Amino acid sequence: MKQPTLEELSNLLAYLYDGHIEEDPYSSFLDMLRKIIDSNFASITMREPSNDDGGLLFVSCDKLQKTYADAHNNPYTDKYYTSNLMSNLPWGEVVTLDQNTPYAYLEETELYKFCMKPLDIYHMIGMDLRNSNGQRFSVRFCRSKESENFASEEKNLLQMLSSHIQRAVANGIQLINLDHERRMFSKTLTRQSIGVITLDERAKVISRNAIADELIREKDGLHIINDLIHLDSSKAKTKLYEYLTEILAAHKKEETPQVQALSVDRPSGKAPLEVLIKPMMIDPSVEPSKTPHMMVFVNAPEKQYDIDIRILMSLYQLTRAEALLAKLLAEGANLDQSAAELGIARNTARAQLRSIFAKTGVSQQSLLVSLILKSLVTIS
Questions:
Q1: Considering only CA atoms, which of 105, 123, 119 is closest in space to residue 76?
Q2: Phi-psi category of 313—alpha, beta or left, where left has phi over 0 and alpha has psi -120 to 50?
Q3: What are the pLDDT digits (tens) for 168-208?
């Protein structure tokens, strides 16, 4: 094993804690650590294969690709994972393969003959750790048969790194999930034609999405002047400034502000804009300047909505048929039109509507439509 310098250890940890943002997650960390401990194979198995699930493996090996996600194109994930000879290790303890399995037995297994031997991997060392959900994930390093087995030097280094690996991977998975949620939320808002404007500690605009830009360009009740939101309706303008002042004052006192909403009349005579002001959680240890303090959601009722029925099914536990009906109603169709569009009897549609009411907790069709159009904003 090559004794790493302090600079190399620093770089190794940097690769580890940034591993979740790589195209092939943790590949730089695995590549570098593999060189340090003179290993020809390294892997992080986030999810073992099972039945139809091909698992999730991050790999560093000159003969293999770097990421296997739900893959059935290799013999390990498709068949031999059930022969894993280092499964369910003691939490956080670094173990070598020969502590569990005699080499004579290893060489007779199909796992070795068809998976390990073709890759020239024989000696193995690793540990089992926990991700952010408390679920087990494994880290493994291998050497060829001609090499020496892993010794105390490699064990000690991996044991020292184990807590860092666990923390980095757990935090990384949380950040990946959060990023996926944000993308889904952003995509959903765009599909629903909802404008989003973020404001800082002085209620000045930090950012806005394309839908908000479109509403501002229309100059019909909503404007941005000197990075501040201006409304044509004097009554709505007064309410907006009151709400913004209340939210900012609550933030300064480290209190929890209330979500606020208002209706904004438009000079064109179109239906009023629906505006919701949602405070954001502020960490007092973070520099307040230019930090988002609140989000302003703006809905123009006449905009076309493209509602994803999978979101409705997930939010309210609707069946696919119920979600399709709710979608049509939210888009402006009445019950008869919706039944005809779906090719079902009116009585069937009425029965589905009653079920939708029971699951969403509303009792009128108009309230159902309002709930569907606003729920993705109010729960976020």
A1: 119
A2: alpha
A3: 988 887 776 655 555 545 554 445 567 889 898 889 999 88
Helices 320-330 + 346-360 axis angle, to 10: 90
Distance from C-alpha of 374 to C-alpha of 248, rounded to nearest angstrom: 24
Domains of the chain and CATH, by start? 6-182 (3.30.450.40), 193-299 (3.30.450.20), 309-378 (1.10.10.10)
C-alpha to C-alpha distance for 170 and 236, rounded to whole angstroms: 45
What predicted TM-score, i.e. pTM, was given to this entire model? 0.55
